[in-house]
Design brief:
Elements: H1 5-9, E1 17-24, E2 31-38, E3 44-52, H2 60-80, H3 85-88, E4 102-103, E5 109-114, E6 119-120, H4 128-144, H5 163-176, H6 186-194, H7 201-207, E7 214-216, E8 225-228, E9 234-237, E10 244-246, H8 248-259, H9 277-291, H10 297-301, H11 303-324, H12 336-353, H13 355-365
Antiparallel strand pairs: 1-2, 2-3, 3-5, 4-5, 6-8, 7-10, 8-9
Helix pairs in contact: 4-8, 4-9, 5-11, 8-9, 8-11, 9-13, 11-12
């Protein structure tokens, strides 16, 4: 049923007179709209209005608790540093009842943010400076949250990067083989099985206290950084739905996984797939320029490994979904998840071949 947007808008403390609301087609999980209001001086300004997908995020109240806690902390730290909190972090618009979300009578959850002007997100990296600035922005995000007690946050998606449990789910998918596909992907299954021990490395370090638990974003794609229109710098990290306790290595590793491959995520010509070491260099430099002062030696040591592990995890998830009948990731052609899986595994192979070079790159920027 189409939502009554004009009615929903009334439940938030927007400033000015309502003008219009339009659908924003970016994003694949939540429904996002741009709302325009006119202030008393005649100037028009914008807000973001979103319907939270409670089929993906089963506890929207907990999700909004996380976002409110994290953005409040970020705002305080940005102000203390002399920054601009209206541009450097998301700003929730309260409801008329001073809540962080509005729940409609039919059970849908809505929230609103101030619109950050003079900056935008990009679906495609346009230059290496973009890579550096985006990675630096993620490093800054974690630095500002490095003193936030991560245990106060909920897991919005339980065990999201618990790679050992992801491997267990993969093994179960192979054993069940509900679509009788396992025989045709024996090579891919063996690829994962040979690397089974890798899946426990980071979670074991966390459990032993050798890696610190931190507030992590958990979806560090390039398009989740707003880039300033004038300076080209990363201004604000967006899409905080998966902010929860974890390891800094999840964020760094996944940013490399999603951004250092010059080919598409579902590229069928695997000769085009690789880890571009020039791009990896900018990821490592940007991240460490913002984060080296608070990261532990162990966290820096495992940065190259984290890139490989997050790529393996993602490929393993694509393969498990292929075996399960494509029930999680949306597909647009036959064997789409298998193509995605093979792309990730080709990246893993290339990272393994270039691992010593990746280690040297991180070492180059480890200290000022």
């Amino acid at each position: 049923m189409k939502p009554d947007l004009a009615e929903i808008v009334k439940h938030f403390r927007f400033e000015g007179d309502f003008l219009e609301v339009n659908l924003c087609k970016l994003g694949h999980i939540n429904d996002t709209y741009i709302v325009r209001f006119r202030k008393a001086d005649g100037a028009a300004h914008r807000y973001i209005l979103q319907r939270i997908n409670h089929n993906v995020f089963k506890s929207p109240e907990e999700l909004m608790h996380n976002i409110a806690e994290v953005t409040t902390h970020l705002r305080r730290k940005i102000i203390a540093a002399g920054g601009n909190p209206e541009r450097e972090t998301l700003s929730l618009i309260p409801t008329v009842g001073e809540g962080t979300f509005y729940r409609t009578p039919d059970g849908n959850y809505w929230r609103a943010y101030a619109f950050i002007e003079g900056a935008q997100t990009y679906e495609v990296v346009e230059n290496l400076d973009h890579v550096y600035n985006a990675s630096k922005a993620f490093g800054k995000f974690q630095r500002l949250l490095s003193d936030f007690p991560a245990g106060q946050l909920y897991e919005t998606i339980p065990n999201f990067h618990h790679t050992r449990k992801r491997f267990g789910a993969f093994v179960e998918a192979v054993e069940r083989d509900v679509k009788n596909r396992a025989q045709s992907v024996k090579a891919e299954i063996e690829f994962v099985e040979k690397r089974a021990e890798d899946t426990s490395v980071l979670v074991d370090l966390l459990e032993r206290g050798e890696l610190p638990e931190r507030v992590t974003h958990n979806d560090t794609k390039f398009n989740n950084v707003m880039i300033d229109d004038e300076t080209g710098e990363g201004v604000c990290i967006v899409d905080l739905d998966t902010v929860m306790p974890g390891s800094s290595l999840y964020d760094f590793g996944d940013s490399v996984r999603s951004g250092a491959n010059p080919a598409a995520e579902d590229e069928q010509d695997l000769s085009k797939v690789c880890i571009d070491l020039e791009i990896f260099d900018r990821f490592a430099r940007g991240y460490l320029d913002a984060a080296r002062d608070f990261l532990t030696p162990t966290e820096v040591d495992y940065m190259p490994f984290s890139a490989k592990l997050m790529t393996l995890e993602c490929g393993m998830r694509f393969l498990a979904d292929h075996l399960n009948g494509d029930v999680y990731f949306r597909i647009h052609r036959e064997n789409h998840n298998l193509d995605r899986c093979r792309t990730q595994f080709k990246m893993v192979e290339d990272m393994e071949a270039k691992f010593d070079q990746m280690v040297r790159i991180v070492g180059k920027y480890r200290y000022v």
